[in-house]
Amino acid sequence: LALSALVVAHLAAFSAELHLLRLARVWPERSAEREAEVQGLLAAALDELLRQGETATAALAALGDGQLASSPGLPEAIRTDDLDAVALFGPSGELLAWDGIHQGPVPAAARSAESRYVYEQGALFGYLYVTEPVPGRGTAVAAALLKSDLPSLLASVPSFESRFQEETGAAIEVATADRAGEGRVWDLEWDDDVLLSVSLTPPSEAEA
Q: What is the pTM (predicted TM-score) of this model?
């Protein structure tokens, strides 16, 4: 019985060794396939997020003065689940109406619609802003939390990074172009400039 158990143990070890050798041979191909899959999922997720932001800012810009005068809040239907906050700012950057949660001040570049899209990353949070000028009235802004460096137990709302990993199993990191991580990196560009970079943390061979 002891000899039989020893033979089985040796066979199991041999099988594991064969698997690891085969994995080492196919790993570059498997890794490339996974990168291509994640790239497609990431592009679709960011496209949808931008679409939601554009739809929200268009709806904000279409609100009449009477609707704003009646309440400092905004209709709940404007802000979707993937958007953390929507707001209207006046011509001088003053806040006129707001709905949602946002950590820290909204950057001036977003409040004044310097660009259609703005990414701002601070010490703990990184937000993507979609803006739309409202002629004679100011700027409509939609904000999405892409990155949070708070521990998961302290984070009150999930970030785009954490939702993407939960839904796809892929660990990504959003950053400004000059702070992009190592490994596979994709850039989101606007007006020939890199708005933000997303790096993929590849799984190890042991995790395959």
A: 0.80
